[in-house]
Specification:
Elements (H helix, E strand, L loop, with lengths): L16 E13 L2 E23 L22 E11 L9 H20 L4 H9 L8 H11 L4 H9 L3 H53 L5 H14 L5 H16 L5 H15 L12 H11 L4 H17 L5 E6 L6 H12 L3 E5 L7 H4 L12 H9 L5 E5 L12 H8 L8 E2 L6 E2 L5 E6 L7 H5 L2 E4 L5 H20 L6 E3 L1 H10 L7 H19 L6 E3 L4 H5 L17 E8 L2 E11 L13 E5 L4 H21 L5 H4 L1 E5 L13 H13 L7 E3 L2 E2 L5 E2 L4 H10 L4 E5 L3 H5 L3 H4 L3 E5 L2 H8 L3
Parallel strand pairs: 4-9, 4-10, 5-6, 6-9, 11-12, 13-17, 15-16, 17-20, 20-21
Antiparallel strand pairs: 1-2, 2-3, 7-8, 13-14, 14-16, 18-19
């Protein structure tokens, strides 16, 4: 058929060459008829005949008279198309090499197609075992090959009508090659899809098998049961308080009824994870051996005697009580004196776990107290995190930079520390996330601060403050030789034979470059020396590198500090005071001078006092108090002296670029004013410190150790201190006090006698 129509109404609807077939089986399928036909030979239409039959009556006897085609068919009759045909035979051919090759290629292609598509296997049986021996007959082979393909009807008809066997074979081969290409593409697509599906299916199957295997071996139970059992195992050997145990059991019961994919399940699981991670009842075995602890502390740090004694006292009390106890200590002092680093040594000496966190700049209360559980990403505060990490109830927690704590929109962390650092309250510390009281009474809290002024009063009240005043030159030298130089050698990879630093060089380095109280800057300078020495060694320096006082500047540059003394001899109106700075102690000159010559006779000019030197509010107040007291003192001691009634005085503190403030220069300013008024220079090589009240009382000041060291450095042999600081001076090491003439004054009259003695 040349089209898709089911009923043929004209000879134009069919091809001129077709096949003569025999109907072997017939099946009535209602609207359609199914037939099995057996093909015999090709036939060609040569002529046509037309007959008709009645559709409603005389159905059994159909008339078929010889009628011309133009005769009209009677009503209720249908035409029957009949044709004359002749057999179509193929042209004779010879079995040439070309034909054989074509036949062989057709057979090979058929085999390839069958190997790719198992549906054609029955055709293979016909090819090999067929009675007609298809494989040996090119005529049958061409027909068989074409029938095997799923080519279009027109292409198959072209093969069918071809009478030249070699041409027919070639056409068949073309169709088979196209069919093979389609089969290969189909197989490739099938493989790709199959691989993709198989991979997913295989993964799923393996996972399911793994679950079953684990369940059989008891390695894994159902998700919820496994989670609940894991949490119960954690607290099995712990001494969990009853209030915490109730919460844990309640949460475990709640967990059992929750869907594993719900958000509430994850929140509850995380909460239980934290609750069961706290080391309820676990504490590390503490070291109560005093001598062993002393060895550890001395091994790691030089000096810091107050701190070491306090820790040994702590151990002694714990030993007598036979119980592990906590305490809150606060080390205050300048930067670089070893406040933070000694905390780790204390933890080692006590055999406690160590945890450090800095509160410098912290503005969020949740960092300490935790978040509410309802918040996304909620977690406990640092203290609970510490307990989870250290796995003990008695760690040493270092809270660093407590004087630099901030205050932001999320609350005031300094106030949040009150509960944490209160010995009366921290046995039941309540974290917002856990919402279960946790005992922190066994924790040893150590805080560090540079100054105590910025620590809020209520917080300072809860801490035991230990002042770490810093190191004198001899102590710095010992620290450098014992710790800093060996450490710097190790970092630089230099042996003792390669580089040597002499003692005088070390003294010069400390005196001219590293005057601050701490040793951090000294450590940097020593590391700088070893780095430059390493460069010289690598560049091929001859022999060992020696760092001497003469060549020190080649390694660390020009000296930063030249001398503490501006005056070899102080003139009238100039007095040396002592001050405390962030670098430790320093000498501070108070200079007074007349702004203009004293007017003579009865003049109406007003006496005045001008203050310069970038003084803060406290020092400005001190200068006014001193001015008032000095005027009264002169009026009492020498009524004839009218200096203050006429003089316009200029008071200056050198180094105007440096801000200065603090309540310790009162007596020095009074002495300078009296020296100017009486035109007498004070005793040479004398320095003083102390604040004076309006009535002349000398008030105690701080930083006595630093100020004494500064006086020694400036070659002062006599210092005057307030009576209230007698105890502070007595606590100083002997090598600091050695060779100093010290006077303690309770009233300014005492100072006047010493400063202006002939």
């Amino acid at each position: 058929m040349s089209n898709e129509a089911e009923t043929i109404t004209s000879l134009d609807d069919i091809y001129q060459i077709g096949a003569f077939v025999q109907i072997t089986e017939l099946y009535d399928m209602g609207d359609k008829i199914r037939m099995v036909v057996l093909g015999h030979r090709r036939i060609r239409i040569t002529d046509t005949l037309e007959y008709s039959f009645h559709t409603e009556e005389n159905l059994d006897s159909v008339a078929t008279p010889d009628l011309p085609l133009e005769t009209p068919v009677p009503q209720k009759e249908k035409p029957i198309l009949m044709v004359k045909v002749e057999n179509v035979l193929h042209e004779p051919f010879k079995l040439t090499e070309e034909v054989k090759a074509l036949a062989a290629e057709v057979i090979k292609t058929i085999r390839d197609i069958i190997s790719l598509n198992p549906l054609y296997k029955e055709f293979l049986a016909q090819l090999i075992e067929g009675g007609k021996k298809v494989a040996d007959n090119p005529v049958h082979l061409a027909d068989f090959g074409a029938a095997l393909t799923s080519a279009e009807t027109a292409q198959l008809q072209e093969v069918f009508e071809e009478t030249k066997v070699p041409v027919r074979l070639r056409l068949t081969l073309e169709l088979l090659k196209k069919e093979l290409a389609v089969c290969q593409l189909q197989q490739q697509l099938g493989k790709e899809v199959e691989e993709k599906v198989n991979k997913q299916q295989k993964k799923f199957l393996l996972q399911e098998q793994l679950k079953i295997i684990k369940r059989e071996l008891g390695l894994e139970k159902e998700d919820k049961d496994a989670v609940g059992e894991k949490f119960r195992d954690r607290i099995k050997d712990l001494n969990v308080p009853s209030h915490a145990e109730e919460v844990i059991e309640e949460e475990l019961s709640k967990l059992a009824f929750l869907d594993t994919h719900s958000s509430e399940f994850n929140v509850t699981r995380n909460y239980l994870d934290w609750l069961t991670s706290i080391p309820w009842g676990i504490h590390s075995e503490e070291n109560f051996k005093i001598n062993q602890a002393r060895e550890v502390l001395d091994e790691d740090h030089y000096g810091l005697q107050d701190i070491k004694d306090r820790i040994l006292e702590f151990i002694a009390v714990s030993q007598l009580n036979e119980s592990v106890q906590g305490k809150i200590l606060c080390f205050t002092g300048p930067p670089g004196v070893g406040k933070t680093s000694i905390a780790r040594s204390i933890a080692r000496a006590l055999n406690r776990q160590y945890f450090r966190f800095s509160v410098g700049g912290m503005t969020d209360v949740a960092e300490i107290k935790g978040h509410r559980r309802t918040y996304v990403g909620a977690m406990p505060g640092k203290i609970i995190q510490c307990l989870k990490k250290t796995r003990t109830e008695n760690p040493l927690i270092l809270i660093d930079e407590v004087d630099k704590i901030g205050r932001g929109v999320q609350g005031d962390p300094a106030s949040a520390l009150l509960e944490l650092l209160d010995p009366e309250q921290n046995s039941g510390f309540l974290d917002h996330y856990l919402d279960v009281p946790v005992d922190l009474s066994k924790v040893l809290f150590i805080c560090t601060a540079n100054i105590t002024d910025t620590i809020p009063g209520p917080l300072k009240d809860r801490m035991e403050i230990i002042n770490v005043s810093g190191y004198v030159e001899d102590e710095k030298k010992s620290i450098a030789q014992t710790y800093l130089i060996p450490q710097a050698r190790k970092i630089a990879g230099i042996s003792e034979e390669q580089v040597s630093i002499h003692d005088p060089t070390l003294s010069l380095l400390i005196k001219s470059y590293c005057r601050e109280s701490g040793v951090r800057n000294l450590q940097k300078h020593i590391e700088k020396i070893f780095r430059k020495a390493a460069l010289k060694i690598v560049q091929g320096a001859d022999g060992a590198v020696e760092v001497t006082t003469e060549n020190l500047h080649e390694y660390v540059g020009k000296p930063l500090f030249n001398s503490d003394r501006i005056y070899d001899e102080t003139p009238a109106g100039v007095v040396m005071g002592l001050a405390w700075t962030s670098l430790g102690g320093s000498t501070l000159y108070i200079e007074t001078s007349l702004k203009e010559p004293l007017p003579s006779g009865d003049t109406k000019s007003q006496p005045s006092l001008e203050v310069t030197g970038q003084l803060g509010d406290v020092m400005k107040e001190s200068s006014h108090i001193a001015y008032t007291f000095a005027k009264g003192f002169v009026a009492r001691e020498d009524p004839s002296n009218d200096f203050f009634k006429r003089a316009s005085i200029h008071l200056h503190v050198p180094e105007g670029a440096t801000p200065k403030d603090g309540p310790s220069a009162g007596c020095t300013i009074i002495t300078a004013l009296l020296s100017l008024a009486t035109n007498k220079p004070v005793r040479q090589n004398i320095a003083m410190t102390g604040e004076v009240s309006l009535t002349g009382k000398v008030l105690p000041v701080g930083g006595i150790k630093e100020k004494t060291i500064a006086a020694r450095r400036a070659d002062v042999d006599c210092i005057i201190l307030p009576e209230g600081n007698r105890k502070d001076f007595a606590d100083l090491p002997e090598f600091v006090k050695e060779g100093l003439e010290v006077h303690f004054a309770s009233h300014y009259n005492d100072i006047y006698k010493i400063a202006f003695e002939s």
